[in-house]
Amino acid sequence: MPRSKSKSVSFHEDVTNDTFHLSETKISDVKGSAEKRTMTLIGKNVCHDSVYINAAKIFQGIRNKKPKDKMLVRYGDDSVSPALTFEDEYSQRVSYELAFNALKYQEFLEEILLDSCVYPCQSIPDELTSLLVVMLYDLQDRKFEAREIFDEEEPVAEVRKIEHFLYSFRIKLAAALARYRIKHDALSIEYILPETIQKQEQRASALPLCVWINTFKTSLQDVVRDLKNKGFTEVESVSDFNRYTYCMDQHCHDVLFFPSSLKEELLNSDLFADCKLLLQDKSRSLAVHSVQALLNTDGDIIVAHVGSHLTIAHMSALRNHSMSRVFVCGVKSSAKADELRNLFNHMGCENIQLLYEDFTEIRPTDPRLQNAKVILLIPQCSGLGFSNPIDFILSEHGDAGLLRDLLQGSVSKDKLCRLAERQLTELMHAMKFKVQAIVYCTSSVYPEENELVVKKALESGVEGHKLKRFRLIPPVFPTCSNPESCTDFFFRTELSEISSGCFLAIIAREKDSSENVSVQDILARAASKGLLGTTAEETKDDEKKQWKVTEHGNGVTASGTKPRRAAFHHHEVPSPSNINTAVSVSKAVTKLRKKNISQPVGYVQPKKPVSPAAGTGLPRVLKHTAHLPSIGKVHGRQMLARKARAERKKVVLKPVEIVFPPVISPYGRPQAGMPTSSSYFDWTGAKSMSDRALPPPLPKSGQTNRAKESAVAARVLKLSSRFTEKRAGV
């Protein structure tokens, strides 16, 4: 059989062993590829010989197999995986479409061959039966008219032989077709398909076109202007579509939707030819935007599978204005790497690094990936959530067996188990990397490939003891109007007339305990360490309770206002920030507490006056009263509990005025470094003293003065002891 001079793309066995996984063909010219995509729509009835050969090979691998006792039409051996040869994207797409149509109508086509007595035929070996069925479908689709053959086309002997054979029996075949339609009361062969398949095809044909804007080539503003110049009008949603209209996506800011009827016209436009707009299912845009939302630094990204080059290019475009690099795993060969570089260069991508190894073969400690922050994992899946199976196979290197699964409406248990096992292995391997998050995305409708895979991976504990564990977090997209509404940890889109099915999950490392507290807690913790002066809540409390430290030398508080006196009434318990302003007083009382520990509260020591100790922070050494440090804020958070208990106990405290006398040097004059004006602390002064700027005069009787000082100190000791006991109880 003659071979085409185009690049050969190998077929290899997939997880099912009887289906195939297609490699992506090289597109040398992007503008030419847009024109060829259009040919898929307008030149559907023109097939080259190589297209028939490839379609027959694909159909041979995915056809419905019957028991030998019920097999009336025999096919050749399909144990050997054949090699496919595609000239371009157009021939690749048409080959798959032709094979899929032959699969959908396999029962009908076999019955036509048998009813017309065209089959069996001695001149047609079993190895060519697949080619016979494929070409029969194309012949009836052309209304049994002759195929147009181009002079430059290289002929394939087997194709010309089957074509001549079928065309010679075209009248018998047409009669058999008419009898079949009458028997099944069908206006056309489309009506003989199961209702589920008919709805699926209608849904796929009506699905709006989803495109994303390549910011390497243009911007949203430029695209909107170009569309306006072409006569397009922006509408609110897809439900408002009316011919030349488009709408913005609600989740992704660079994604647009167009009516499906404009596909041919859009693919012919310069916006597509110049790679300014790129056609791709929205599910992949959701995945890359989820990665983008997780990155607030210049961290790198690991794409676990090559998948669609459009997904990689979209990820690259979103990180265009950063220093991030996109590492793509599983390139495998230099030829594939050159092909991808050619595609990315046409799109303007410059921040992509290609890795030849499969993702599971790369060690988590690989030095190339040490700056990676997020892993994008889009594993091979059953793909039943995808609206157009041909697009999924071509863009995602999907399993060709998806075509058979779609017709059957389900995936076999064995295949589903193998897929889920592979997905779990890849996700667990991703969790071994020192990354912040992993985005897991599939086009499956089965929980075995979605929620169960994620939950099993989280329960495995594969991260070990050295790395923080992963946990589920709700996906958040940049353009969501209300991110807090995302309460479900799994994001799903159902298969419908406006979107394909999609599953999305994000797992992220558990944060430190310090990162799990509120902003107020963080500020309180910083203040307790002396990193902040005063928190907002403490400032409000200070303003309400008006606990101020005043200097009577100038009559101004530490905040620059006139001194105030606040009452300490009823069950109010002073906050730590307020008590900290008088920490020096507590230190001064410490000495008295040690001496009076065994004495009653009301005991007064008449002989030994209370003299300020050096360095205790009493008025004698208060040089910088306005700049007292907020040391006691360390108990800021515990004060809430103390206040609650104080409310329950209803401790009634009487207003007390504490006035310390000015320090008099034993030498009759101020010591060096001491201010000439005395200072005192006023916690709860009487109203009659609210306007007093200077301390009261000293009593003439020293003994009376010392007795008053002892009484005041005893009361301070009592209050301080009570406060200390309450704080210890917390």
Automatic annotation (TrEMBL):
| SAM-dependent MTase RsmB/NOP-type domain boundaries | 199-510
Residues where S-adenosyl-L-methionine binds: D358
InterPro entries, alphabetically?
A: MeTrfase_RsmB-F_NOP2_dom, NSUN5_7_fdxn-like, NSUN7, SAM-dependent_MTases_sf
Q: Is Glycoprotein given among the entry's keywords?
A: no
Do you know which PROSITE patterns this protein is assigned to? SAM_MT_RSMB_NOP (PS51686)
- Family from the record: Belongs to the class I-like SAM-binding methyltransferase superfamily. RsmB/NOP family.
- The protein in question is named NOP2/Sun RNA methyltransferase family member 7
Instruction: Give the originating organism.
Output: Anas platyrhynchos platyrhynchos
Encoding gene, per UniProt annotation: NSUN7
